[in-house]
Each structure stands twice: as C-alpha cells, then as structure tokens.
Model the fold of this input.
Amino acid sequence: MKNFKILFLLLIAFNFLFPAFVGAQWLETTILTGSNPSALVWNSDNNKVYCANFFGNNVTVINGSTNAIDTTIVVGYGPRALVCNLLNNKIYCANNSNENISVISGRTNTVFDTISVGSEPRALICNPTNNKIYCANYNNHTLSIINSITDEVITTITTGYGTYALAWDSIDNKVFCSNINSSQNNLTVIDGVTNVVSAIITAGTTPIALVYNPTNNIIYCADYNSNEVVVIDGTTYTALTRVPTGNHPRALAWNSFNNKVYCANENSQNVTIIDAATNSVITTVTTGISPYALVWCSTNNKVYCANSYSNSVTVIDGVTNSVVTTINVGNNPRALAWNSIRNRTYVANYNNSSVSVIRDSIISGVEENHQLLSVDRIQFEVYPNPVKSLSVVCYSLPAKGKVFLQLYDISGRLVKTLVDEIKNPDVYNISLNTRGIAAGIYFLYFQTESNRVIKRLVVVK
Done:
C-alpha cells in the first residue's frame, strides 16, 4: 500500500503540474462519411463517434478504437446537431428540415424513436441532473424540453427570435439560450426543474456562442457583431463585463485546468485567450483562416481550433498559450469532438464529406495505451465534471474481474471507496454524491486486474 501511494502521488503530480507535457500530434487517418458532415459527438459508453451528415440525411458511426465505420444510420432530413446522454446511452440528432429529433440507441446504433419539435432545430444540450434534453428551434423561436426517459416533449417555451446556442449551468441548474435575431439580442434563462423562464438577459447584438465556466459560475457569450465576449454572472444573470476580441467571435471553449476561455474570431484569423479569474485578455494567438470551432482536450491540456477556410487545425498549448502545431485536414472543417479514451480529436470536413482523426500521444514516441492507461480494454468517464453535488461515474468491463473505484484528494488521502468487488462484464453507472466533500481538486482511481486509470475531478460549491 505504501508503494501504491507513492506511485499514486507521482501520477497526480504529473497530471496536475504538467498537464501539457510535450507530446506529438499528427493526422492518423481520414474517414469518408455521408454528404456534408456538420456535427460530431463522442459517446464514452461505447467509445463511438457519431457524425451527422447534413445532406446525406444520415449519421455515420465511427469505432473509437479502430477508426472503422461501424454503421450508417438513416435519420431525418438535414441532421444538424447531436448530443449524447450518458445516463441512458442515447444519442439525439436534430433534423433541421424535418422539425424532429431522431433518438439513437447507443447499444444497438439504431433509431428507436422520433420526437417532433419546432422549426429548424439547430442546437441540443443535455441536463443530466433532471435527465432532460433541450432543443433550440431557430425558425419559430422556441425551445423544446424533452423528458429523456420517455422521449416526450414536456413543454415548449417561447424565446427570442433566432434561437441559436445553448449552455447548461450545472451549479444553478439553469439552461441559457441565445437568441441571435432578436431585436433585443438577448439570452433566455430557463429553470432546469420548473421549465419556466427565470430571466431574460441583454447580450450584445448577435449572441452566437455560449460556454459555461463552473469554477466561477459564469456564462461566456460570444457577440458576433460587437467583437466582444459578454461575461454573465450565473446567479444574478447580470453582465459583469465585456471582453474585447477579434472580428466576429464565432466559437468558445473553456479550459478547466488553467481556468481560461478561448474565443475563435472568424474574420481575424486568431483566437483570443481570456483569463477567467480576471476576465481579461491574456493574449491573442494567430490561427488559420476563418477559425470556426474549438475543443479543449484535457489529457494533454491542448485546444484544437478548426480553420474552415484554410483546411487546417491549429493546436494551442493550454499552459504556454502558444501554437504547438498546425495540422492539415479536409476541406472546410466545421466541427470537432474529442475522444478522451483514445485521446483522439475528430474533425468534420464539411465540403469533402470526411472526418479527419488527429492523434495526440502523451509523450513523443510513447503510446498512451500502455499498462497504466490500457485504454483499449476499458472505458472510464465521469459526468458532469466539474461537479457541485452529484456526478455519474461510467465504466465498462470487457471481462469478469475485481474492480476498485476510489476517490482521493490532492494529498493522496483516500476520501471514499465507491467499488471494491468482483463485477461481471457490462457497462456500469455509479452515482458519486459530493455534497459532503469540500470544494477542490480530487482524483478518481479506477483499477481492474489489468488496468489502472486516474481521472481528475473538480468539486465546486
């Protein structure tokens, strides 16, 4: 046990102090999909990537271990947005031209239900606290709220004009909805429990993108035509400040390790990096032409930026704020998804109907699937993270065996044991109640007979 604790503390120190340890990124492969891939989502339950093909009217299912296509699922016309609900292993696909959502089983990869929503469903988000799905209906200015157990619409809420982007506040259990064509140019705030409008917030002239920061309980809103990011208090719903960006801020991402917000500026070929503690600009990083989408990868603490007109992805170091490399991908990359099990970033190339797979090794020349992180054999995720009161820990076992699942604080002290028993091969969801745990950084230690994985968990209050 003493040797284990020393090893565990060394691993924690490496993960915490050197999250951006030098690695290597390269294009691993390119996968042909249906016509005009427009959205991606990764499902950690089955390690599959789902790609919505807008003019193909289908969803390509990519095996996260082999990069092979498992199947292609026919959905409605114009699939535009995807979201995965890990609580019940379902994928929701918003079909822009059909005014409905296709519900896909993550176990069978088949459509088993279709939900009627509003006109031009454009964005989706999952609320795991109440097991609900929210769908932004752009053309008729509404938000459909769906019970993810029954897959029925609970209610439809009228929002401002041009319902466009969504974010979920996990601390206060609120959903923020941006209304891009509203004369007020505002955000509608919906209570996650009662499904009623809690507030309407003025947010610039064209609120095009949202991201939530649970560390500070802040919503960041990219105001496309004002060239600013509006910083909104998640409790009071007031605009705290406006951070200047480049021209036409299009996409946002949050880095929980360093508490930074990244803003892709479509018409100035750069990314603005914001210190979320002070809400001030740290620096501006030059990218390719028309940066369009962002994703943060926590394994190596890097931000990937898809440049739609230069057919490339810029990789930014989360610690140094410098460009690590630029990787050429397909034509018009518009969407990104990250697979934390295999540490791959998937890039949807809209104009040549393909997905590029970018590989990122932990240390140059060393693969990430060594015995400590034998990611080919198991899946291990926690959601949501950061967490205020309740997380769900999801893991899978390919074979029967002894399982340990424990929570440690940053000093290496055991906080609680969640699992210590023999388990049959299956997918498991374990509830982790953090109400009695102090705010801070913790580590989930997961061990089977042939694998050990450590995952960082942030508890906020």
Observations:
- The chain has a mean pLDDT of 88.
- The first helix runs from residue 2 to 17.
